[in-house]
Design the sequence.
């Protein structure tokens, strides 16, 4: 992989998003303008993902970022859903306080590099955007608490607010992280805000008794398999496949990990997410796409075993 394009991409993203902090506004009807921007983004993204070489994909990705940033300068852009743009995920928080753009760019060696931004809604309609800079390669301890400039990149598919006195204390993000040619990863990330600055990671994920509380949870498994990781709203539980090695002698080698057909969950208790092992599903879970799980799947009904 030609890595000289990665710093260039980061510089372009930071510069473009920094320019947005000047808070642009326009008085015309933004609908037609946003539709034209979306059409351009669709065209660029289709070209980007069909290019055969790293360098070409990164160059086209730079064009995509520039076009996206220009579109977000338009007054009223926060309300525009970008629902026809399939190559990236746009998630708005249930309280409408922010939304996250995230996407994965494939690399020749089978790995991925992630890009994204958080758009924060403001009372006066002015635009605030935080770039998400994927620094996965430099994060030696994946349990670190980081910020938007040192992001443990992922393509998110669900955002779950955790309330305290009726207001969100933090948000749980479910995401697909890819990894390399042999294994895939998914992540339970925790996002909070400190004076409008993004904080990733929070010690709220409790495992089995005696284990260390985690700031985020990462799952790794054989790339040819899929993994369920989704919220069941009726029980307020995040349900996921229990991953295990194909045989005991493969323990620790995640290329040989897959679901053992049992399920665990994290249940919200007193503001924390506590592990519940061996939950039983009344209906078979749907197979999850390798890029993201379907958060609208209502067939998953977890019930704790007696």
Sequence:
């Amino acid at each position: 992989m030609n890595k000289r394009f990665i710093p260039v991409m980061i510089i372009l993203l930071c510069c473009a998003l920094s320019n947005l902090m000047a808070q642009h506004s326009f008085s015309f009807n933004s609908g037609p303008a946003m539709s034209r921007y979306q059409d351009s983004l669709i065209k660029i993204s289709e070209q980007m993902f069909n290019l055969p070489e790293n360098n070409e994909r990164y160059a086209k990705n730079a064009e995509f970022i520039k076009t996206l940033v220009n579109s977000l300068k338009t007054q009223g852009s926060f309300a525009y859903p970008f629902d026809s743009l399939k190559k990236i995920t746009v998630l708005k928080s249930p309280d409408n306080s922010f939304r996250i753009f995230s996407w994965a760019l494939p690399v020749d060696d089978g790995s991925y590099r992630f890009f994204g931004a958080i758009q924060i809604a403001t009372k006066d309609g002015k635009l605030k955007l935080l770039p998400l800079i994927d620094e996965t390669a430099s994060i030696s301890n994946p349990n670190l608490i980081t910020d938007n400039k040192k992001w443990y990149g992922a393509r998110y598919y669900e955002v779950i607010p955790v309330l305290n006195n009726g207001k969100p204390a933090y948000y749980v993000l479910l995401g697909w992280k890819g990894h390399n040619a042999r294994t895939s990863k998914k992540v339970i990330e925790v996002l909070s805000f400190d004076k409008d600055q993004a904080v990733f990671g929070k010690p709220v994920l409790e495992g089995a008794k005696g284990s260390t509380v985690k700031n985020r949870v990462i799952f790794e498994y054989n790339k040819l398999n899929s993994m369920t990781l989704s919220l069941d709203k009726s029980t307020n539980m995040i349900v996921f496949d229990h991953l295990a090695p194909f045989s005991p002698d493969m323990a620790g080698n995640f290329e040989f990990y897959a679901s053992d057909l049992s399920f665990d969950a994290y249940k919200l208790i007193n503001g924390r997410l506590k592990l519940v092992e061996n939950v039983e599903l009344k209906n078979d879970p749907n197979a999850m796409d390798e890029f993201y799980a379907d958060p609208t799947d209502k067939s998953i009904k977890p019930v704790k075993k007696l």
